[in-house]
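quick one before i forget lol
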Amino acid sequence: MNKASFLITGIVALCLFQSCDSTAQNLRKTAMHNIAQPITLEEVKAYAQGEWTSISVELRPTEDRTGSGQIEPTFLKRNFKYLEGDKFVGTITLFGDNYGQFPLMEFEFKGDLKWGEEHPIAEGAWKIDYVLNEGFGVTPLHEQAAQMLNAGLPVGMTPFALNEKKDILGKAFPMFKIVEGQIVSDYDLIYFKNGLLFMGAKHVDGTPFDKAENRPHQLQIPLEKVF
């Protein structure tokens, strides 16, 4: 073997070693994450840091926005990022089918986290409020979704356009039961088990978490950590 071939072989071996070492480190990191069980508020806050996403498309009961009183099935995926300084960015994507092949609309929420007292559903569960005071983005992902949004458009608001995000923070939006200047809050819970993030299960009658007395009592389908 000449010197050049020997050098190339050495470089390849080093790269493979580094790749294997990196994979092993990631596996150890994931394993340590999955066996951790945060209980105290400070442990839960630290464990939440990072990005979490839906395992698959989820089914949720939703109150009909037209005021008919009917409960509609909603198919969605969630993505939440817990940031330093008790901040968060949440994204919810709605679909028109069970398997997420027909995206309809996307919501992006930004704001503050307000941590409360322990929640009785499980040891290590805590009450948490999501205060949407930094952004409330709405993006129609289908023409029918844009048409629906524009059908109930408040006076003075420019129309929604396909794949274009519009921030409605602080603006009146009757379809979402939001009045001018209102800062929307979601009164929820948070709990971690086996490396998964559980929020509160939606009420079977579609009642939103828009008041402290509407805070959930059970656990929803979990989110998994994005490494």
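fyi Residues 1-35 form one domain.
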